[in-house]
Inverse folding.
């Protein structure tokens, strides 16, 4: 997954400690360990995934656990969608400081990072796979978790579960993931930094051109890469779920609503109606995270838009 | 029209020098004169209406002129939709400082105000009816212009033109106008000043509750007050035209898009397809005005959203 090393590091979501790849600062302090190398044992009940429903990089991992029934062997520890007042580099496990994650028995994610590296000073990012035996973060790379959980945990995955990262599609999946990261996810972050009308419009074109490519791809096949659900679909789904609710609005990516791209809109809803996708999709958490940095709502720029109406997601 | 005296004075559009009623400051310096009292002569070719397609108070007057064929006897002098760099209290007649209005032969509106009152220091607001003989602003109240042009200029209005302000509907029209002003126009301004989630949501409810009332009214009748087009329709139309393009987005009034209110959406498009409405509707001018204070586009907060797609207005 070397071609992902750079992607996502410098985007806003990374600053927000929700990352595709760990930030350099934390990556140096907390080195990701691997199942593929045998460095991490494959053990039922040994790990929990710390994730947040707001995070487009942690959510695909949470979806993957449910899709592959790995939620039966790996725990899930969701963090609260908003920062706590005055704390901008950590995630808490509840709305109140005192609430503990039932598996980890800690109130904030940084404690797991500090168990791994006592001098930890980075931003505690999600996703983070934590070893329940030691309380340490053993991997905090969305890219690597998606790949390794798909391939290394096969003995715990039922035969009828989808194969999300088949070797024969690996190149295509990695290329498609990169398109999603570069032309959708990163653009939605970069656009808010655009200083001129021209730069803004160039980024809008980049974004909608990519949507048009995917719209075309989905004309004749049910999934991005054909007849098979893959990791790329997980990554695209979390982008589409955020589109009308956040990007269309907050990032002025409002050339068209998602419903104007019928193949993408039907595809997104089709995935949404799969249990693994729906139960890891929380529109309120997504809105809170992107519109409100902290729990303190001060002024119009932070108030949570009442819309758009997301009820259409419920119709098939 | 006494019940309109207060309305609109303290809203943001007034600050922007686009007003339903003149600001107190300019009203004291430039007293509005009346056709009803005979103070102003009814004379073909004597006046021009200074207006801007961006302004929801000047635009209904421009629509009225065309609807009643008064455009044959009163001129129209449109101002440029954007402020000129460094000038925030005046409107220019072109994109360049040097461009003159062909009727008035001036480059900026304040010159007409200064002819009326040489010590004029207020904000030059639109609409402004200017006497071409003297170059002076003789009336700059949208409320009064709509009323007086409907009623006092009858001898120039063809018999088959609509009666926009019939005496038998006067109370209803004034009440409805007040609803539009208080619950739609002012809310869209006030909402950006809301300091809390609760205040914001209260204003959203106020706005959408009013839309729901109008949606219901239009269920069984073609116009707001029945079978007859009135001034209230002109005022509501300019609000609806701005809804998806500005308010839905910039003012977080995004509970539903206009198309989710089918009666209002069909009504708005039906009016739009009348020549008098369409030729005074300029989506680009509206967007420029509300997103860009001046011609200098600096940073994301000022870039003009590429969307939403307004092509649906063209379909009947």
């Amino acid at each position: 997954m070397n071609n992902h090393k750079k992607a996502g590091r410098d985007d806003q979501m990374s600053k927000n400690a929700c990352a595709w790849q760990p930030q350099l600062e934390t990556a140096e302090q907390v080195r990701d360990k691997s199942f593929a190398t045998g460095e991490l044992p494959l053990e039922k009940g040994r790990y929990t995934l710390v994730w947040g429903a707001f995070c487009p990089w942690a959510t695909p991992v949470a979806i993957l656990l449910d899709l592959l029934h790995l939620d039966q062997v790996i725990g899930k520890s969701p963090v609260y969608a908003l920062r706590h007042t005055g704390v901008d580099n950590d995630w808490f496990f509840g709305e109140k400081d005192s609430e503990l994650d039932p598996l980890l028995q800690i109130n904030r994610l940084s404690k797991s990072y500090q168990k791994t590296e006592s001098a930890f000073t980075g931003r505690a990012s999600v996703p983070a796979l934590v070893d329940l035996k030691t309380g340490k973060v053993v991997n905090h790379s969305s890219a690597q978790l998606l790949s390794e959980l798909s391939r290394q945990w096969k003995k715990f995955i039922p035969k009828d579960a989808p194969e999300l990262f088949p070797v024969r599609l690996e190149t295509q999946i990695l290329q498609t993931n990169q398109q999603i990261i570069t032309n959708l996810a990163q653009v939605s972050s970069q656009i808010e930094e655009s200083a001129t009308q021209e730069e803004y419009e160039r980024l809008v074109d980049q974004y909608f051109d990519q949507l048009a490519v995917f719209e075309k791809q989905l004309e004749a096949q049910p999934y991005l890469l054909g007849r098979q659900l893959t990791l790329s679909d997980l990554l695209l789904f979390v982008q589409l779920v955020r589109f009308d609710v956040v990007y269309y609005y907050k990032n002025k990516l409002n050339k068209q609503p998602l419903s104007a791209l019928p193949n993408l809109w039907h595809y997104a809803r089709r995935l949404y109606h799969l249990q693994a996708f729906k139960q890891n999709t929380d529109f309120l958490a997504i809105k809170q995270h992107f519109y409100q940095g902290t729990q303190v709502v001060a002024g119009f720029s932070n108030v949570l838009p009442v819309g758009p109406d997301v009820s259409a997601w419920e119709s098939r």
